[in-house]
Amino acid sequence: MNKDFFSQSDWLDFERRHVWHPYASMQQPLQVYPVVAANGVMLEFEDGRRVIDGMASWWCAIHGYAVPELNAAIEAQLKNMAHVMFGGLTHKPAAELAALLLQIAPENMAHVFFSDSGSVSVEVAIKMAIQYWHAQGKAKKSRLLTIRGGYHGDTFGAMSVCDPDTGMHHLFSGIVAQQLFADAPTVDDDETWSDAQIASFRSRLKNHHHELAAVILEPIVQGAGGMRFYAPEFLRQVRSLCDAYDVLLICDEIATGFGRTGTMFASEQAGIQPDIMCIGKALTGGYMTLAATLCSEKVSDGIHAAEDEQDGAGVLMHGPTFMANPLACAVAVASIQLLLDSPWQQRVLTIEKALKHMLSPCKASADVADVRVKGAIGVIEMKQSVDVGRVQQQLIEQGVWLRPFGKLIYTMPPYVIEASQLEQLTSAMCAVVLRP
Ligand SMILES: *Cc1c(COP(=O)(O)O)cnc(C)c1O
Questions:
Q1: CA distance 168 to 147
Q2: pLDDT digits (tens, 9 = 90+) for 317-370
Q3: Interacting residues of 426 by C-beta distance below 8 A, sequence separation 6+
Q4: How much is the pTM?
Q5: Quick one: how far is CA 186 from the chain centroid?
Q6: Angle of CA points 56, 60, 66, to nearest 5°
Q7: Residues lining ligand 1, judged by CB closer than 6 Å?
Q8: Which atom of ligand 1 is least distant from the CA of 223?
Q9: What does the pLDDT look like over 112-133, one tens digit per residue?
Q10: What is the number of other CB atoms lying within 10 angstroms of the CB of residue 170?
């Protein structure tokens, strides 16, 4: 296809008729905005308008765009090889990335399985847990327990542990595995904690542990399932209950990882260690698609205890075509190094303070149900569903890019956002909320 295949105007028309967007209709698609470049925290639209990216491309672009260090890492790796299969071959970028991850992950994490997206890393985590129990001769322990309001991805295993009401369970009922759901905690700090917060979870675990392979949850911050924050005490109690009832704990840190909540990983805020952990999204600084599932020695030893074919023969049964893609590993190494060399804790704290201060006027609106901030995440929850198309247009008029969903208008900007840009971003959010 030659470069001038489309005239200036008709490519968008073609795209609208033939290319699907996330959670979209092909017949009545919402408006999409063509981007031609991205630099710093700015996206540049085809018509020349520039907007501040308040979404960091769905949690990913923590350093912003066109980052010299990350560009250089990709270019250097490209000179050697873009990709080779990981079956029977290996390369230094994968080893370097694994070393860096194990250095920053919770202390008990010992092994890394690379995959190509967050959802797949969740599938791998579920497999690890199921294979673990299978190898112990406890094949009945194959279900999962989670809390309501979660989001873990769009593939079938991941979908089965998303919130049963806002997730896609109704659409795929009879196809999606039936998992167990406990009430999510309703308090977001340890001061207001009471034992009632864990009652539902405790009773599910007590009644079903014999059939449970693992508990899976997003630590501290539930992302796409509703942007809710909960008390670290809940996670501490979950950890000790999992130990007491002999059930593995999977922490899905795909959204929360790499500093977003103020600590490198959110589980640190509760001082707990998971048995299995999923990471993705900001792993490559938003450059390439890459995810990983980490696990403890206990989990890998357990899987390897299987003796015969029927028990899985001790090998983990997964192997994506693009496993440990070298370009993605190389840029992930550069992104983590850049993060570690930056004052990221200070930056996230500064953003947190600014968001708290600048979004608080929105509480005055009768249309607003709640305003909450955690780390570099700011959420305005409306009482009614947001008209995404209209609100997006109003925000763009003010030079800001956000993608509201449901009742939520929220931001998780790149950590490098400047004070004046954050001011413009939050002013725009307040303006659309407070608009008569
Ligand atoms: C985004 C997300 C996923 C899914 O990741 P994909 O890369 O979109 O497949 C899983 N879990 C959490 C917590 C997420 O935020």
A1: 16
A2: 999 999 999 999 999 999 999 999 999 999 999 999 999 999 999 999 999 999
A3: 354, 355, 358, 359, 378, 411
A4: 0.97
A5: 21
A6: 70
A7: 117-119, 122, 151-153, 218, 223-224, 252, 254-255, 280-281
A8: 15
A9: 999 999 999 999 999 999 999 9
A10: 9
